[in-house]
Amino acid sequence: MKILHVFNRHRGGGGADNAWDATIALSRRRGLDIDIFERDSCDLSTGMAGKLSAFANGLYAPDTLRAFAARLERDRPDIVHTHELYPLLTPWLFEQCTRAGIPIVHSCYDFRITCPIATHHDGAGVCTRCADHGAHHALLRNCRENLPESAAFALRHAVAGWRDFYRRHVSRFIVLTDFSRDWLHTKAGIPLERISVNECAITAAADPVDPAQGAYFAFAGRFVPEKGLDVLIEASRMTGLPIHVAGPHGSDPAPLLAQGVPVTITDGPQSLAAIYRGARALVVPSLWFETFAIVAAEAMAHGVPVIASRIGALNDTVREGLCGLHFTPGDAADLARQMRRLWDDPALCRSLGATAHADVRTRFNEDIHFQRLMDAYEQVLFSLRR
Q1: How far apart are CA 148 and CA 128, in angstroms?
Q2: Is the pLDDT of residue 43 over 80?
Q3: Strand segments (E) across the chain
Q4: Beta strands 279-284; 306-309: pairing state
Q5: What is the mean pLDDT of residues 40-51?
Q6: Does the record bear Nucleus in its keywords (predicted)?
Q7: 39 band by pLDDT with thresholds 50, 70 and 90
Q8: pLDDT for 214-272, tens place per residue?
Q9: CATH number of 211-363
C-alpha cells in the first residue's frame, strides 16, 4: 500500500506535528510504502510579507498545486493522507486528488473544519458562532486580535465552506476521540460512517514513576489563552503548591518568570519527559474543547495522573476517577481543591498514576493505532473498488 502524507508543519512544532510524525514513522516500520509532500511555516518570514504569503497561499496556492499535481502524476499513491494544510498548503489540492481518482484520508487534530482559527475559543470563552452562523463572525469578533488577520482567516474558511472541500472530497476522516467524532458529525455534517476514531500512538514507559514523590504540578503546552495557564497559576497561589511550566521551542518565558513561575523551554521528548517524571500530576487547564491533549497521554505514559478541565475531548482522554481528576473549566478554586487532594493523598496519587499507565499501555499502544489506521485505509480502498 502506497501512502502519500501531506502536511504543513507548524512554526515551533506541537502535538499535531508529533502525532503525524509518529504515525508516519510507525507506518514505515510496519512496511507501508510512505512518501511525504510537506511545507513548513518556518519558511515564512515573520513580517508583513510572510503574513501576506500565508494569506495568499491559504486561499489558493498555484505553485504548490502544480507541484502537487506533478507528484500525483509521477508517484500515483493508493491514498493521499492529509493532515494540517494551512497556511502554505490548501484544500484546493483535494480537487486534484479527486480528478486523479485518488482517495483522501484526512486527520483532524483541531477544529479547523468548523472554526476559522481552529480552536472554537475567541479569547474570552468557547465560541461556535462561525459554525452556527457563518465565518464572518471571526472578523466581527476579531478572533485573531488583528483585524486584517481575522478577515483573512474568515475569508479562507468561507471559501473552504463555499467549495465544500471536505465533505465533497474526503473519503474518510480520522479523529482522535469520540467527542471529536460527534462534533464533526453534528457541526460539519460529516456522516458517522465516514469517521474513524484513532487515538494518538503513545508508548508506555517501561519504568513508570511513583507520582506521590513528585515535587510540583506540571503544565506542558503553548502559552496561549485557550490553554488556561493563568487558571493554574491562580490555583497555585491559592494553595501555595509548587508548579513547573514547560513550553515548546520558541515560547517566551519572560512574563512567567517575572511572576516567579519556574519555566523550562523543552528541546525535545527527553526534556519534556523529565518534567512529567518529576511531577505529582500534570495539569491540563484548557478552556477550549481540545481534540485529544497529547501531553495528557504522554504524562500518563510515565505513570503520572492528570488533573484536567471537564471539557470536550479531555473527558475521553483522561478517564475521571481512574486516570486522574477533573475540574470545572476556568474555575481556579475547583482546580485548587483537586491539586490539594492529590498533594495530601499519596495513595490516591499512586492509584491514579498506575491506572493511567495501564490505560496508555492498553488504549494507546502502537498495535491498536496501526490496526485502526489500516482499517481506515482498507475501508477507503474497498469503497473505491465497489
Answers
A1: 21
A2: yes
A3: 2-9, 33-40, 79-82, 104-107, 172-175, 195-197, 216-220, 243-247, 263-265, 279-284, 306-309, 324-327
A4: parallel
A5: 85
A6: no
A7: very high
A8: 999 999 999 999 999 999 999 999 999 999 999 988 889 999 999 999 999 988 888 99
A9: 3.40.50.2000
Rounded Cα distance between 3 and 233, Å, is: 44
Please provide the distance, in angstroms rounded to a whole number, between the alpha carbons at the two ends of the chain: 18
Number of H helices, E strands in the chain: 17, 12
Is the alpha carbon torsion for 354, 203, 297, 180 positive or negative?
A: negative
Instruction: Determine the Cα–Cα distance for residues 175 and 192; give it in Å rounded to an integer.
Output: 11
* Alpha carbon distance 307, 309 (integer Å): 7
Take residue 26 and report the three cell numbers written for it: 510507525
| Maximum separation of any 2 CA atoms in the chain, in Å | 63
The CA radius of gyration of the chain, in Å to the nearest whole number, is 21
Those residues whose C-beta lies under 8 Å from the C-beta of residue 200, and which sit 6 or more positions away, are 15, 19, 22, 176, 292, 294, 297, 364, 369
SS (H, E, C) 252-283: CCHHHHHCCCCEEECCCHHHHHHHHHCEEEEE
pTM for this model (two decimals)? 0.93
Q: What does the alpha-carbon distance between residue 7 and residue 213 come to, in Å, rounded to a whole number? A: 40
- Please tell me if the domain spanning 2-201+366-385 has the same topology as the one spanning 211-363: yes
The residues spanned by each domain of the chain are 2-201+366-385, 211-363
Q: Give yes or no for residue 373 having a pLDDT over 80.
A: yes
* 3-state helix/strand/coil string of 47-61: CHHHHHHHHHHHHCC
* H or E stretch at 352: helix 346-363
Residue 124 burial by Cβ neighbours in a 10 Å radius (0-12, 13-18, 19+): exposed
Range 2-201+366-385: architecture per CATH: 3-Layer(aba) Sandwich (3.40)
**CA–CA dist 361, 338 (Å, integer):** 25
